[in-house]
Amino acid sequence: MPGTNKDCATCIIARCREIATHTEVPGEITRRFLTPPMHAVHALLHQWMEAAGMTVHTDAIGNLRGLWLSPVANAPRLVIGSHLDTVPNAGAFDGILGVVMGITIVEELRERQPPFSIEVIGFSEEEGVRFSKAFLGSLAVAGKLDPETLQRTDQDGVSIAEAIYNYGLDPANLPAAVLSRDAFAYLEFHIEQGPILESEGISLGIVEALVGQTRMQLLFEGHANHAGTTPMHLRHDAMAAAAEFVVAVEAYATAHEGLVATVGKLEASPGVGNVIAGRVKTSLDIRHADDNTRRAAVDALTQIAKTAATRRGVTLTLRTEMEQSAVPLDPHLTTLLHRAAAQAGYPSRRMTSGAGHDAMILAPTIPSTMLFLRSPGGLSHHPDEAVLPQDVEAALATAMEFLALLSPELSDDKTKDSHA
Amino acid sequence: MPGTNKDCATCIIARCREIATHTEVPGEITRRFLTPPMHAVHALLHQWMEAAGMTVHTDAIGNLRGLWLSPVANAPRLVIGSHLDTVPNAGAFDGILGVVMGITIVEELRERQPPFSIEVIGFSEEEGVRFSKAFLGSLAVAGKLDPETLQRTDQDGVSIAEAIYNYGLDPANLPAAVLSRDAFAYLEFHIEQGPILESEGISLGIVEALVGQTRMQLLFEGHANHAGTTPMHLRHDAMAAAAEFVVAVEAYATAHEGLVATVGKLEASPGVGNVIAGRVKTSLDIRHADDNTRRAAVDALTQIAKTAATRRGVTLTLRTEMEQSAVPLDPHLTTLLHRAAAQAGYPSRRMTSGAGHDAMILAPTIPSTMLFLRSPGGLSHHPDEAVLPQDVEAALATAMEFLALLSPELSDDKTKDSHA
């Protein structure tokens, strides 16, 4: 019923905006892991979840978890979730949209008595801002939050374990946060945070995989010298070497389908106009859905950097700061989601996610799928971040078709099980 | 007499090192215009000058001026000088060497009763550190220090006029600082501050001209975007545009004889590894002895920057911060200096100065010439800045030959004058 979906879409956006009023910094949206405004967010979601017929609790890492139980006996559990925390000065939809969508789906679906229960999880931490460590919420649910991590401290010297205590929770209960064994699938809605869907005029993206990623730091060391008195052939210009590398990064990535490679940071020392830069530090961020393609890019680009440095008598030091394999999502669920969008009457495109999401952490543990909603202007991590009501409507309609497609499969499984 | 010159060279270096102990910052050499340690420097030089038979005073801009009067009646005046101030954390020779050389020349020469007087000037300000305005000392001597300049303030809000008062001087006396009308030539010794002489194994450089210079700021403005979710073809990467420009600057200058062009500053915003840079600000410093060559380089390189920006949907804003024409030194004096080096038995090479010097300010007013001494390691503006004793010896021997070559010319002039 389009009328209903339209109302829901408006309501979903309004709920996200209401959540956004709870912030550490008045006038902007900043809500880090287990900071005071998270209590209000939990209270609000708790209220909406209970009204939708869910039983609600907060687990030991601070994830808010609402469970709607199917009236069908021994029904398996579908998990729908995304995260509650934000980057500093964020928008109103990154993360929270997926949680509010989950609650709305329960509100819509429960009358139909589907053959599965639904657990909606608002993950406490995904952005990695407070403790420079991302995915704390989903790692705990996946059972992969190692105890050492709890000793990490924030900028005020507070450890994760202390933050948990201070919030009124007990890290000793972390084992109970692990995903229930009856969970059979994970579904996450998220804004695209990129310009692809908008550039193609499409509401929805079906995520096939989350890209693998390499982050490096390159240090070019030449000699700082007088810009006026040092002829070109006697220079060891770290800036020129680094610039040649930056240009090559862009050219290489442009020439290789699906690859993104970025130098976003370049720090020159001494960094003044009349002195040849003696030292330049750059970042390198390379992502691709195929790990071999990514590794080949890293090899090729570091070789180019070495050549650019050597030719100028500049030394190069490389440091790998992050290396993360690509995570494929469940092919069957992804195909089902694609079909659901088509049946709901919305064109969608298969795509890879260039950013990390909670689904990346859960996918190795439970069959997972993700639906992207178009990001107007490609904007994200920005106060102007938005989502269009018609795209929320499309996502909701697709979700309902998806769940309808899931239901007979589950009934079949149950039949099979009972025959076994 | 090589023995004497060798002793003098050792003494000159020792005197420079003694001056270097007077600093604003203990443990390093930092001596800005009219700061307290300048009093001790003046006192020391005053003492050496008086011992050499000179009458000494400090002019209204803080230049220390010692005059040795020739016993020949109505003898014209040779001016020898360089500066007393330093950059922060400087070496012991930039500037001061030329002043100490001048005093030593008087000590050596006065017994020979040459047909010219010698004024040694220790310019109070050349580096432009304290008031972000260079050449205050020589501008006053050239009569080109405009009154508005005196209102400039340092980082503590003290104006140049106040700094002069605080030092015990009176800006009202600035007109008396202007070069005497009987001055016929200006000679400046200075370390090269570059690697050319060392790379060719030569002690001395004869400066034919000081390069013209253009300094610009370029602002590339694209769009900051997520490094993972923004495909290459939808980027407006300010860093990539700037990097293409940096590479072109190096290539263009390398291909054009005598041109130096440098991007020493590059500031990226937001400047983090996983965000495409939305905004990059770079410097451009271009120098050449021929103004047309320099202007053509500015045109070509700004055009390249525009193309690199436009191709990426990045806007470019240009700002010219400094534009200074090349300053030729006096061809006759320069030829004489070259001949003097040869007669003293030292190979020298004609060259242009890539840096500005007090001679640049005086050259339009009085025939001027400069002698460069090799800079070990090309180092300058650095605590390890040095000068080799044998190069000081060579410079001193060259100076004595130069003054010997000057003397008959002056006698001829005087003969001519007396016949007129």
TrEMBL record, chains A, B:
EC numbers on record: 3.5.3.9
Cofactor note: Binds 2 Zn(2+) ions per subunit.
Binding site for Zn(2+) 2: D94, E127, H381
GO molecular-function terms, A-Z: allantoate deiminase activity; metal ion binding
Cofactor dependence: Zn(2+); Mn(2+)
Boundaries of every Peptidase M20 dimerisation domain copy: 212-309
InterPro entries associated with the record: Amidase_Cbmase (IPR010158), Bact_exopeptidase_dim_dom (IPR036264), Peptidase_M20 (IPR002933), Peptidase_M20_dimer (IPR011650)
Keywords: Hydrolase, Manganese, Metal-binding, Zinc
Enzyme class: hydrolase
Residues given in the record as allantoate binding sites: R215, N274, R287
Coiled coil: none
Pfam families assigned to the protein according to its UniProt record, in alphabetical order: M20_dimer (PF07687), Peptidase_M20 (PF01546)
Chain sites annotated for binding Zn(2+) 1: H83, D94, H190
Family affiliation: Belongs to the peptidase M20 family.
Name of the protein in its database record: Allantoate deiminase
Species per Swiss-Prot/TrEMBL record: Tunturiibacter lichenicola
